[in-house]
Design goal:
The structure holds two protein chains of two kinds. By secondary structure, chain A is an all-alpha fold. Chain A is built from 16 helices and two strands. Chain A has two domains: 105 residues, no CATH class; 227 residues, no CATH class. In chain A, α2 packs across α16, α7 crosses α8 and α14 runs antiparallel to α15. The longest helix of chain B is centred in the middle third of the chain and has 16 residues. The chains are: A mainly alpha, B alpha/beta. Chain A: It comes from Nocardioides koreensis.
Chain lengths: 407, 508
């Protein structure tokens, strides 16, 4: 809300010449504080609310607390002190386990890196009006490509890493590009094609793992050998260079979206494809490009595990990173910075969850998944949060979200 | 029923949308509410209809104070509203739409469609609103859909009917029919609040005219007041309703269209064998009732749809196979018919929209990188030059008033060197002050030697701007005439009464 009354209805031209020096002052900031502050507030409120509900769950999953329930009315103090204990211990473990030491921070960063990369892919597609459900499939293809180059080719260190990295990105880009071309050429809805491509990717992975080229020698399991050392990210402590690459990728996506002609086209097409077409933009080409870049980012996410973590290719290697990426992008409101922060949060939660289970309260680590789900649920329903916390309705929904089936 | 509004005020934060409004609507009166876009007409009506809660002031019906918490209360009190954008369900029949919300049933939840149809038939005979109750809403013309909205309100026993910009979507004929309906309603004792910014209509139908400017009632006028007086009250300064222009210095043909035919996706020929030429330094007006092929014709000129036959050339160069990007590069300036759909990206800032088709130029980008300083400089310059009223260049275009949105589109198209300017409905939904400005700029562009093609359904606009007028009917150009032709004659040509032969006589 502006502090001065709107001037657009005032007709007197003498006094109402919009002085370009005063009102139309160049504003280089991508968004004014008034724009992002409510979003940040709602997101923080969502996290706090999720932690509150999580606290109840922690209390109820603690054996001590349950034991105090039968005599709650005769001696309620036991219940409250034990519940407080359990909640305190768990959350303290969650915090120290994820950011309490240099080692913990390192683990969190390593865990966050693939989430950030794949999340960026979803974010970028979102901004072009595409709902990319296919990060998982793109990630699998990226892993196959990076892994194959990593454990078959014999190249000098450095170069080998670079080639494997590029192969991973290209693998993901190819898989994303298929959905992009289908959308551009035939209008096939990207939600459907990317979901189907996820299944296909899983099948391709199983098929490849059954071939000798991908089989780890001397192993009965369907898994590949790890990549050669020459193709791994250099490490410092428990950190690897891939983490830096992930953050650079976030910077690059920010630059593309906000400072490049490509991003201008992406955002224009995402917000109004008809006006973009009328303004001479090639809408199908933009859809294809968006999906290629999005797929490339998911492929980059795959290299974090394969080249950073010495992971071998196996049917379960991708976990649910590709799907968590969608949540990360949603939580990050489809902005690069938001995606990085959301990726870090989710990484911290998953690392901290292990510490929580190991703590005295031995809270199941699945609780962190519940926390993640609750946070996203609250973020997705801002009206709910605003109602619960009596926050002023901001009535803003500026993030461009993918269109529904009609579009 | 007598409706009084006393000291009604609505504030949004520090912004006062309505300031101490006093109005009285007498029974059986057509009360016109005249004001520019953004003057606060809609806010006032939304308070009357229970959609917004007034900050101060009161409403009285027959001397009794009332408050409306929701539209339901307003409807119960006898207030009906026909919104600018219809609230109808396209796949339902007229009768089903009318009974929506208070469905009558024959027990067990079966809808009593017959009763609804009977009600519609009764209302349509009483008020002479010809509608078929069993027609599907999506299959009837816009003018008839509007009648359905009116019947919906009457079925709720509305005593005061609010019509929000009802003529914006109608053809000239349909406007005449609507005026007939309004007179009929008035005769039966219904009061009408008629919201518009079109002076001609106000004078034709109004009993009393209240003018709203900047959220205040600045005066009440009689329909006998001149258009110039009304416009001055509305805008707050004197406005010229005619466009000052010299005789054109007509040059060589620039855009030549020969035997162009366009078939739409349903396989219907919508443009049939159209030929014309637009000459340098001249405005060619294409008149016609909405939906007679103008939309598809100009889309084919830009390359948004491919013509199925015919030739389109600019300075002798064939552009038939061009897409929009090549056509724009060829020197076509294009102001689309529906600006929010095709003209701008609502979520984008004014700064970004001002370069929506220019960002690729060397001036605004180097390789992949946008030159932000150039974008800002351009925005500051255009905002000043075109008097775009916006809080800042970073405001989203969707937050501007219609007139300023259109100025953004116009400013962008005029910031290139043009050979041909194609403008469709350049001032639709634009306030009087901005119309004057946009018309002046179009004539200035003509005087620079650009060939200008104006497509408009508003005859006033066609007459004000054109040096030659081509009339389209049923996908064809039925004749090309000069602007000294009588209004009635051109109206008949638009209605298809004149064949091309007769039209040729008119030119001679």
């Amino acid at each position: 809300m502006s502090t001065e009354p709107k001037t657009q209805v005032t007709p007197e031209p003498e006094q109402e010449q919009p002085a370009p020096t005063g009102k139309a002052q160049p504003a280089r900031r991508p968004m004014a504080a008034a724009d992002w502050l409510p979003t940040v507030k709602t997101t923080l409120a969502a996290i706090v609310l999720a932690l509150l509900i999580g606290a109840v769950l922690i209390a109820l999953s603690s054996r001590d607390v349950i034991e105090s329930l039968p005599y709650f009315f005769s001696y309620p103090w036991d219940f409250f002190s034990r519940a407080g204990d359990a909640i305190g211990t768990s959350y303290w473990a969650l915090i120290t386990g994820s950011v309490g030491s240099a080692h913990a921070v390192g683990t969190t960063l390593v865990r966050s890196a693939p989430l950030i990369c794949a999340g960026l892919g979803v974010t970028l597609a979102f901004r072009a009006g595409l709902f990319n459900i296919g990060a998982q499939g793109q990630l699998v293809l990226g892993a196959l490509a990076a892994g194959y180059v990593g454990f078959t080719w014999d190249l000098p260190p450095g170069l080998h890493l670079l080639v494997a990295l590029v192969a991973g990105i290209l693998g993901g880009a190819l898989w994303g590009g298929i959905a992009g071309v289908l959308k551009a050429r035939t209008g096939a809805h990207e939600v459907i094609t990317t979901i189907m491509l996820n299944y296909l990717a899983a099948a391709v992975l199983i098929y490849a793992l059954g071939k000798n080229a991908f089989q780890r020698p001397g192993s009965d399991n369907t898994q590949s050998p790890p990549v050669f050392d020459s193709a791994t990210f250099p490490t410092i402590g428990n950190l690897h260079l891939g983490v830096v690459v992930a953050f650079l990728a976030a910077g690059l996506v920010w630059w593309i979206l906000n400072r490049s002609t490509l991003g201008f086209e992406l955002r224009a097409v995402g917000a109004n494809p008809d006006a973009s077409r009328t303004a001479g933009m090639n809408v199908p080409a933009v859809y294809t490009t968006a999906m290629v870049v999005a797929g490339g980012l998911a492929g980059l996410a795959a290299t974090m595990g394969i080249l950073g973590h010495h992971d071998s290719l196996s049917p379960t290697m991708a976990g649910s990173i590709g799907f968590d990426a969608i949540t990360v992008a949603l939580l990050g409101r489809a902005t690069p910075l938001g995606t990085v922060l959301a990726g870090l949060l989710f990484g911290a939660l998953s690392v901290g969850g292990v510490a929580m289970q190991a703590s005295a309260a031995s809270t199941p680590k699945e609780l962190t998944e519940v926390l993640q789900a609750l946070i996203v649920l609250f973020v997705a329903a801002p009206a709910l949060i605003q109602g619960m916390l009596r926050m002023k309705s901001t009535d803003e929904n500026k993030t461009v979200m993918a269109k529904g089936w009609g579009g | 029923m007598k409706l009084e509004i006393r000291g009604l005020t609505k504030r949004f934060g520090s912004f006062t949308a309505n300031d101490q409004i006093d109005l009285t609507i007498e029974p059986g009166e057509i009360h016109c509410l005249l004001g520019e876009n953004g003057a606060g007409k809609s806010t006032l009506m939304n308070m009357l209809y229970g959609l917004l809660e007034p900050t101060e002031g009161e409403l009285l019906i027959d001397g009794e104070p009332v408050t409306f918490e929701s539209p339901g209360d307003a409807i119960a009190a006898g207030i009906g509203m026909v919104h600018q954008h219809f609230m109808l369900i396209p796949v339902f029949t007229v009768a089903e739409n009318v009974m929506l919300g208070r469905e009558q049933t024959r027990g067990l939840g079966f809808l009593n469609r017959a009763a609804a149809a009977k009600l519609v038939r009764e209302l349509s005979t009483t008020y002479r609103l010809a509608v078929d109750p069993n027609a599907l809403v999506e299959e009837i013309p816009v003018g008839v859909q509007q009648r359905v909205e009116i019947i919906k309100a009457l079925a709720n026993h509305a005593k005061v009917l609010i019509l929000d910009e009802p003529t914006a979507v109608l053809t000239p004929q349909e406007i005449d029919e609507l005026m007939g309906i309004m007179r009929e309603l008035k005769k039966q004792g219904t009061s009408i609040i008629f919201i518009t910014h079109k002076l001609r209509e106000v004078k034709a139908i109004g009993d009393r005219i209240s003018v709203i400017r900047r959220g205040k009632v600045v005066g009440t006028a009689d329909p006998s007041a001149s258009e110039a007086e009304l416009a001055e009250m509305m805008v707050g300064r004197s406005v010229k309703l005619t466009v000052d222009k010299q005789a054109p210095t007509v040059g060589a043909p620039v855009l030549e269209v020969k035997n162009v035919t366009v078939v739409d996706p349903r396989g219907v020929q919508v443009v049939k064998d159209v030929s014309f030429e637009a000459r340098a330094g001249e405005v060619l007006g294409i008149a016609g009732v909405q939906g007679n092929g103008q939309t598809e014709l100009i889309k084919s000129l830009l390359g948004l749809v491919k013509p199925d036959a015919g030739e389109i050339t600019i300075e002798g160069k064939d552009i038939r196979k061009h897409g929009p990007r090549e056509s724009l590069a060829e020197g076509i300036g294009y102001i689309p018919e529906d600006r929010s759909h095709d003209g701008y990206v609502g979520a984008f800032s004014v700064r970004e929209n001002l370069v929506l088709d220019l960002y690729r130029n060397e001036e605004f980008s180097r390789g992949l990188a946008l030159r932000l300083d150039a974008l800002e400089q351009n925005a500051a310059q255009r905002i000043e030059e075109f008097d775009i009223r916006t809080e800042s260049m970073e405001s989203a275009v969707s937050a501007l008033s219609g007139g300023n949105q259109q100025k953004v589109v116009v400013a962008r198209e005029f910031s290139r060197q043009l050979k041909v300017l194609i403008a469709s409905q350049p001032t639709r939904g634009v306030d009087v002050g901005s119309i004057e400005f946009i018309h002046k700029r179009i004539i200035a562009e003509r005087d620079k030697g650009t060939a200008v093609v104006i497509v408009s359904t508003e005859l006033d606009e066609i007459f004000a701007l054109s040096d030659r007028i081509a009339v389209m009917y049923d996908g064809r150009i039925v004749g090309t005439v000069t602007p000294d032709i009588a209004r009635e004659d051109i109206g008949l040509m638009m209605a298809g009464a004149h064949g091309p032969a007769e039209a040729a006589e008119a030119t001679a």
